[in-house]
Amino acid sequence: MRKTVTELAMPEQSRRLIRLAPYTRVSSGSDDQLHSFAAQVKYYTEYAAAHPEYELVDIYADEAVTGTRMDKRDDLNRLLRDCRKGKIDRIITKSVSRFARNTTELLTMVRGLKELGVSIYFEEQGIDTAAIDLEMILTFPGMAAQKESETISENMRWSYQKRMESGDFNCCKAAYGYELIDGQLYINEAEAGVIRRIFDLYLQGCGKQSIANQLNADGIPRRYGYKTWHLNAIHYILNNERYMGDALLQKNYTTETLPFRKRRNRGEKPQYYVENSNPAIVSREIFQAAQALQQRKTAGGSAPKNRYPFSGVLRCPVCGHAYRRQVTNGTAFWLCSYKASGRSECASDRVPENTVKDAFMRMSGKLADNREELLGDLIRQLEKLQSRTSSNGERIYQLNRQIADVNAQNLVVAQLHSSGILNNAEYAAQSGELNRKVSELRSERRRILMEDEDNEVIESLRALDEIMADYAPTGDFDEDLFGQIVESITVVSKNALRFCLAGGLALTERI
Known about the structure:
Blueprint: H1 5-9, E1 18-26, H2 37-50, E2 54-56, E3 60-63, H3 74-84, E4 90-93, H4 96-99, H5 103-115, E5 119-122, E6 127-128, H6 134-166, E7 178-181, E8 184-187, H7 189-203, H8 208-217, H9 231-238, E9 247-249, E10 252-254, E11 262-264, E12 272-274, H10 284-298, E13 314-315, E14 323-328, E15 331-336, H11 337-340, E16 351-352, H12 353-369, H13 371-389, H14 393-418, H15 424-450, H16 455-469, H17 479-485, E17 486-493, E18 496-501, E19 506-510
Parallel strand pairs: 1-2, 1-3, 1-4, 4-5, 13-17
Antiparallel strand pairs: 5-6, 7-8, 9-12, 10-11, 14-15, 15-16, 17-18, 18-19
Helix pairs in contact: 5-6, 7-10, 8-9, 12-13, 13-16, 14-15
């Protein structure tokens, strides 16, 4: 290892140990990551021991879910925090692409670390940030790594597109009621019974929230450790064409530039409808009957008399009581029920019904347009906080290590197969077993995270995010959407309404 300029200039007797922090990223999708997390821990431990000038602080490691998004790399963020706290003098990592694949983020991190007096050594490139011109040297490998990431993503998108066009593509993740085995969907009979029950209850006249309440009362489990059924989950099931055996492909797509983000496909990309793509859980007649009933309810054909969308939802800002509807000269207004009946003297104003509808349409449109920034970022921040404050933090850490190791093993198996050492049957057996282990470990990790109190809030926000991903503004008041996402509305003043949404999210809209 070359000594930095600063180290060479220091008198021998005044040198102190340099606090070293290795950073590694174990990836299941990268050809150059052949070693497990455990092997890299061993490597860097021995490395520090072989260099007496170093004092090993800690080994920071992430499972490489993505190398292009900083918010998915918890240990890298922990490493940067420790640098800011003055705990680290030097970072060592395998390569520029292991540290960052986004050139902008790379240069930002390196500049910030240099200001803190922390140097980085990239082993593969032989780059030492303490001894070179950062702007000149780092840009090129960083840009190459970013281009590599974009090329890989582009190739994957192209592969999916061609398989959709040919009818060979099925799905990447099985919906509730199914299991994905060797690329084919098979019915999970235990979960399929729940699906059939949901359709039966709905066609018998039960509302979506009522169905969710019944499943919760009976202790029916969801997947991935989720404990609670919500209205949006029932809505999703009743509208998923998979359950009658068909498939609409490319409902979502991934953006083509960094940072990669998943978007709802609203006509930007072609979609492909495949009939009889998988085994059906309910008959085509039952599925279509559920669609027809939803359309009639949306049109208001089954709404109870004297019951309106804002009944019990609009609240008085003064006394807290619900508003009620009045019609004056053919125009509908809402005002505090206690004030209207003379039981209070609140100074609240009445609100025209169309004004509330217009405000909701504006608010929901803004939420849909900025869904990733508002909901996506909030959910990720809460998940990070939940992970850090969980009493099961050590167990989560161990599970992350095990997942990284199994993914690395799967990569080795894939390379043995591509080189001809493993035949197709051997590869399928070993890869299938490793994928099963990863699924079990991830389910266990989610189950543990679900035990935390913050989970209900996160799950509600995820539900809201899924609903808004499907929302396409039509220019008309959407009563179904309103019923799904709005918990209450407070008439803040004659100029503003505050919408309280699922997960406790509150948005104020001027009127």
